[in-house]
Design goal:
7 strands; 241 residues; 8 helices; alpha/beta; 19% strand; seven-stranded mixed β-sheet; binds S-adenosylmethionine; Rossmann fold; single chain; globular
Length: 241
C-alpha cells in the first residue's frame, strides 16, 4: 500500500513518456555537445567578469569558428551584464587543414589526417561578422610550426583569461599547453573539450597531455571547476607558486 508521501514522490518522477524519450534520442549528440560547449564558455566568461580576470582568449582548434564566434558573442553580452569591458584579444590557432600527420599514440578511429579540413576564407568571413569591434587574430598552420618553440609575445599575447583546448590529440594539446604557459595567471580557465576520450586511457589524448603538464609544472596549482557535454572538463589556475 502506498503512502501519500510515496504517491507525491512518484508523481514528481513519472515514467518517461514515449514523447520525452523521442526528444532525447532525436537530439543529435554533436549538437548537444556543441550547446554544452557554449555553456562552458559562457560559465568561464562569467567567472572572468565576476572575478575580474583580465587577459586574452586563446583557442586551439578553431575549425569552422563555431566556439570562437560564440566566445566573442558571449563576451559582448558579459560587457553589457557587468557594465564593463575586459580588453581582450581573441586568438585562434588552427591549420584549417586538419590534423596533418597523426602520431601512432594519437591514432583514433574518428580522426583522420584531413578530418576538419575547412575553407579558411569562409571561416574568416564568419568570424569578421561576429567580431564587430572586437580584436581577433587567427594563426594559420600546424602547431609544430606556429607554436612549438614560439613565445606568446610573438603573437602579442601577455596574459590569458580563457584557454579553449579543442584540438583532440595529445601532441597538439601538449604543444598548446607549453606555448600558453607564460600567459597563465591566477584565474585563467582552461577548458578541455575532449578530456575523456580515447576510452579513458591515461596515456592518451588531452587527459595525458594535461597530466604531464601538471607533473612538469608542480608550481602551477589547478582546481577542477566543472565537467560538460560528452567529454569536456574545465580547470582554473588556483595559484602559481
Ligand atoms: C574539433 S576541431 C575544433 C572545433 C571547434 N573548436 C568548434 O567548436 O567548432 C579540432 C581542430 O583542431 C585542429 N588541430 C588539431 N591539431 C592541430 C595541429 N597540430 N595544428 C593545427 N591545427 C590542429 C584541427 O585542424 C581542427 O580544426
Amino acid at each position: 500500500m502506498s503512502s501519500p508521501f510515496t504517491e507525491k514522490i512518484t508523481s514528481l518522477y513519472p515514467p518517461a513518456s514515449l514523447f520525452e524519450i523521442l526528444i532525447i534520442s532525436s537530439c543529435q549528440p554533436f549538437l548537444e555537445h556543441t550547446l554544452s560547449k557554449y555553456t562552458a564558455i559562457k560559465k568561464a566568461m562569467f567567472m572572468n567578469y565576476h572575478d575580474n580576470t583580465l587577459g586574452d582568449y586563446l583557442e586551439f582548434g578553431v575549425f569552422t569558428g563555431s566556439s570562437f564566434n560564440f566566445a566573442m558573442k558571449i563576451d559582448k553580452k558579459m560587457n553589457q551584464i557587468f557594465k564593463r569591458k575586459i580588453d581582450t584579444q581573441f586568438v585562434g590557432f588552427d591549420s584549417f587543414d586538419g590534423f596533418g600527420e597523426i602520431k601512432p599514440n594519437d591514432e583514433h578511429p574518428s580522426f583522420k589526417s584531413n578530418t576538419f579540413k575547412v575553407d579558411k576564407k569562409k571561416v574568416i568571413k564568419n568570424i569578421e561578422k561576429s567580431a564587430k569591434d572586437q580584436k581577433f587574430k587567427l594563426v594559420e598552420g600546424f602547431y609544430q610550426k606556429t607554436i612549438e618553440n614560439k613565445k606568446t609575445s610573438d603573437y602579442g599575447i601577455n596574459k590569458s583569461r580563457i584557454i579553449m583546448i579543442d584540438c583532440d590529440l595529445k601532441e597538439s594539446t601538449t604543444l598548446a599547453l607549453n606555448f600558453s604557459k607564460p600567459s597563465l595567471q591566477e584565474g585563467t580557465i582552461i577548458i578541455f573539450d575532449d578530456f575523456n576520450f580515447y576510452k579513458g586511457n591515461r596515456n592518451k589524448g588531452e587527459y595525458c597531455a594535461f597530466q604531464n603538464f601538471k607533473n612538469q609544472n608542480p608550481n602551477i596549482k589547478f582546481r577542477r571547476i566543472f565537467d560538460y557535454g560528452y567529454a569536456g572538463r574545465a580547470f582554473i589556475v588556483a595559484n602559481i607558486d
